[in-house]
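Issue 218. Parser rejects a valid record. Input:
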Amino acid sequence: MGAPVLEELREVCQPQAKMASRNGEHWAGRLYMRRISLRTTRHLVRTPVTPDQLTWTMVVCGVASGAALMIPGLTGAVLAVVLMQLFLLFDCVDGEVARWKGQNSAAGIYVDRLGAYLADAALMAGAGYRAAESGAGGWLSVGVATALGVVLLKASTDLVDVARARRGLTVADDESARPRSQGVATVRRVAAAFRIHRVTNGIEASLVLLVAAVADALTDSLDPTR
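Output the parser choked on:
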């Protein structure tokens, strides 16, 4: 049996409602990764591989991205970026394969969210280890503390859905997530304009750390990373 045509695959695996959602899709997915993922999915749907296996692969890539920062110099920073891009690829592919094969599961959703927690936290902890490479005190603690902050931030967002589910309400969509308070709405618009919250996201953070690593190499110090 041949591989499905891309248009047919896109209609099933990349529904417009998800792609257009303000919170449902990372900018890198919309910009380039969904084009790559669809071609990868086209081949994977012909294999026995399951969506859960792809999700666990995503988790491994995310955690390994943070661990890669333990490698000194540009090598570790480049490897961290590559692994984080693979994390994003598998994050796209697992859902696409699940939709095509009709194998969506609560366990898969749980592992997917767990992977997002672990990947971002691992990257922050890895950055702290990298900054403390020459024995400078406190930087590893800063990295671990930031990792904990990232986990708490993600948890506070996910707990909105938990609270709604326990009240028998639907999962929050773009409309229900819109702040009712004018003051809160203004703060969110300012944060969105400057992308403040993006700094600790694994995709963006890995790129920032790569730029810092290049600056480290040019200045022969760890000051840019710190």
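Fixed in the parser; the record now loads. The first helix runs from residue 6 to 13.
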